[in-house]
Target: FAD-dependent tricarballylate dehydrogenase TcuA
Amino acid sequence: MSAVDVLVIGGGNAALCAAIAASREGARVLVLEASNAFWRGGNTRHTRNMRCAHDQATEILTGPYFEDEFFEDLLRVTNGQTDETLARHMIHESKEMLTWIAEQGVRWQPSLGGTLSLGRTNAFFLGGGRAMLNALYATAERLGVEIRYEAEVTDIEIDDGMFLSATIGSTAERIEARSLVAAAGGFESNIEWLKRYWGDAADNFIIRGTSNNKGTILKLLLDNGVQEVGDPTQCHAVAIDARAPKYDGGIITRLDCVVFGIVVNKNAQRFYDEGEDIWPKRYAIWGRLVAAQPDQIAYIVFDASSLTLFMPSLYPPIQAPTIGELAQKLGLDPAALQGTVSAFNEAVRPGTFDYKILDDCRTDGLTPPKSHWARRIETGPFYAYPVRPGITFTYLGTRVNKDARMVMADARPAANMFAAGEIMAGNVLGEGYAAGIGMTIGAVFGRIAGREAARNARN
Model:
């Protein structure tokens, strides 16, 4: 049996920010990562950017993104389903993250333009999520943080809101700590848990990130009296290429071309407005939309005029010289797809196409409409991507307060337990998603959790 000041369970962005912050407060910190060193970091490995409030343009951001605008964006994507106190606290604290993260060795790249429309709001990691992780690990190790890999926690001992110890399954080693930071993700890779809420449809879900996020730590905490937060059916779910692997395909399997075409189900019927809003604010609705379609499959259909307007997937689009032949390749009814495309084309009203703004290219008299970026699909060859729901992380989690301290079922703050990242994201994300906000939640609350856990241990 060993004892430390702060035990951090998890190995991604939130966990490392917590470990670094705790170490900088003088705590002796141990990080337990379930994977090996190569696969460390969970979903953070696949990320690219972080959404942070800032009051002016910088070397890496093209303009200001004030706190109130950030909050309004959050309200819009969550339909108001957020804890306003925690959300505003996170947004305010995010203003320091651009500098704090850089002080931990992470490098930012110049702002990006194009269809992402994130150059003003989101800072991008130079080298992506893996480079960001490597920098955080290097800093943590330099500060003396102990990292243990292949150390999956299978049991936690909690007594009346006080963490006592964690047990590592492979060795049955029991580790005591004065404070706990849980940063071990959600339960998105636990298909059986997903099926409790989604039924057999969950068998057709693809998990964009790690296969290690089985929700073990979340379940242990909830079973030991921590108050839960969030809707178990809500998650960050996007449309990804149906040819992607079951686990860990990452961001290169995501498809960003919905706004440039139409999306049909296996019956070749449209089912939602593809041009509802700027893509970073609406892309994460498409996983749930596809999940509600027959056999959880859909197809993004577009023509040659749109082929170079978006970042391609890892897999090439399916191509055919006519809509009928494209339907045959997709296994769809050719007449049905031709009818859907023809009805769409007839409803398109001409305007000035501009993918960077909410333009005036729309349909008229069509249900569902396409509100923006509607252009006739008529220039061959024609293309399609098959898509399935890609689950990034789930929103059921542990309730926390502004200090990232867990709250018990009886509303008492836990004695020495803190949480950060996906495992508590449901406090901020009741539903929906905006690009980069997962990393914001992880970094901001990770830093807070580590700092407060260290102070708690010291006292």
